[in-house]
Amino acid sequence: MPRLFVHFTFIFFTLTALSGVWMRFSPFNPTTSIPYINVLHGHSHLAILGWAFLGAYIIFLSVYWRTIRQRNQAIALTMMLFLTSLLMFAAFLYQGYGIISIVMSSIHIFVEYWAAVFIIRQLKIQNEVPKSGLLFIKASLVSLVISSFGPFSLGYISANGMKDSIFFDVAIYFYLHFQYNGWLYLFLVGMFIILVHSKGILIRSTFISYGFWIYIISLFPSYFSSILWVDLGVLSMSLAAFGVIGQWIGVVFTLLAFKAIWKELASHVSKFTITCLYITFLLLFFKSTMELGLLSPTLANVIYDTRSIVVGYLHFTLLGFVSIFIVAQYQMMNIITSKCLSVLGFAIFIAGFILNEMLLFGQGLLKWLDFPRLTFDTGGLLLASSLLLLGILILWLSYFQNSNNESSCR
After folding, report:
1. Share of the chain above pLDDT 70, in %
2. How far apart are CA 53 and CA 112, in angstroms?
3. Model's pTM, two decimal places?
């Protein structure tokens, strides 16, 4: 696979972090030529559709590159994903939600459909794809398509003058739910199963099957946990409870299946990779457990009304679980190796992530307790975002480096 494709993912990862630094710096320099809201929209769209989407797709491409028959199509698809994401990001910076950014976002969705069809067709010609991995991948692509209903409905909602109504936010939460709880979670878990299988490690545990089906059955009703603030009555509360608890059980079963192969996996990959995977699965468990808190009406109202907690959760999911899982799988394929520079970059990234989450959730806790906010939180968040950017740049630099030029930290 062309090394340029991996550079594309790091370009998006870096731009996402750079725009994050810009937003954290804006309180210190509010008079800028680019409106804050434009950068916010560009940052959030690039994080999901640029870095996370392309990063996940590159994992698939790396695993099956040698056996892909339609390489020209794979190259064209990668280039389209890169260009549409980059133009979409530029459009949001230029005009926020406007005709150009909406058109580019819509084009990106159709490129995603192309990617979904391409992945399914390539999996059909592969000889040894574990059934459990295939189940997760197929379900992830269905979730990807379903998530697109949210953005498409925004056009109808806006055209009918309901942009300020609850329907607008409901559509956004629909999209986000099926993106990070559906497409990204299922796809990355599926690719992890495939990568483990490629190393001759079989996940024989029935826990993986239980984990998949319980999670899938719970995925649709758990969406209601994201919109409990709409107050749709007892039915929505019941569906939300069923969904959130079911998702938690599904995640636990999946993690237990991975625990069964942990020792064998540790003998096939570096300690650095095992550490990244351990952090990934720990974050996944905490993420699913945190979602159980939405079942408490009092706690749910605090969460929905506290922006720092919502932002902290999104960062916990996308910056934590999703991003670290992508980096871990890059390591499993030796895209990122266990060089000292890589370890340093990852350590700085983790430090920035922890500081970011502590400050965001800390702000929410102080507000809940009716305590005054921390005087250094704005500067602390700027420091956290700067550490994240620095860590990403060092990881990217390590990819440039030849493995023979640096000692191993295995």
Report:
1. 95
2. 9
3. 0.93
